[in-house]
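FORM 7B: Structural annotation worksheet

SECTION A. Query
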Amino acid sequence: MDIIQMAKDMGKAIQADERYIALMSAKKANDEDKELQELIGKFNLVRLDLNNEVSKEDKDQKKLEELNEELQKVYQQVMSNPNMAAFNTAKVEMDTLLNQVNQVLSLCVNGQDPDTIDLDAQCSGSCSSCSGCH
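SECTION B. Predicted structure
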């Protein structure tokens, strides 16, 4: 079996994984949540207004503060929506899985034995604090 086919098979396995299924379900719930979609639309409009005000030569500081406060308020409403919270949780889980897959592949490309990779030994990115990965 060639490597590309193995990658396709891994893609199928990822799509069958409970984390992927949860993410797609949460995405669908977000898309179907009219209240959430309206809040996201409002957030985008306020953000656009804020960006327009920021780009003006003669900025109105009071208007900037009002728009910033409104943006924060709408953002909090978006993020406190139960569907958005479920989506964010599912996304973190999926991102963790993809990071682990990438870590395994990267370590293998750098010569590490795939059977000895310990994903619990997370790399901080600083070799000075590392006991070694090779």
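SECTION C. Observations
The mean pLDDT is 91. The longest helix spans residues 82-109.

SECTION D. Sign-off
Analyst initials: ____
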